[in-house]
Design brief:
mainly alpha, elongated, 169 residues, 4 helices
Amino acid sequence: MNLARSLYSILNVIIFLLLIGLSLGILFFVMMLFGVKQDVIGLKYDALIFKTERVLYVFTFLEVLIYAVFVAALWKLRKATKLLLKNDFYNSELIGGMFNSGKLTVLSSVALWCIDVIGNLFYKRQILVGLNEKTLVYLLLIAIGLFLMLMSTVLTDTNAIKQENDLTI
């Protein structure tokens, strides 16, 4: 159970850091909408590359939304890990939390991957062929999400077997 405790601690730190980053991102996004010039952060997309500034705002809003979905996935995984600390493997809340966390992780990874590909293709006029670091991270997150969904299915099956064994005894 030391590994579950370590995972729980790491998830707490990651969620805390992501929430700070999302809060700062929303703050700077609102500042941009109100026309406040800021040189604190380097934006990922240069406004001159886009046809209009509206596209820059849409891309920024979509990325913040996707990161919020990713934080929700990590939050569900954190709740599931908390149940693992109690050695409650047959809890339906644990199974549902792992499955929902996996679905949200896959959804956020695929959506962010698509936004990056569309942004590179249409606005930066770059076609990236092959694997780069970002693509590998997206593929890893998709694999982690699918693994969480698989583990929830395994726990569902073991829960059914346990209930059947309890009835026969």
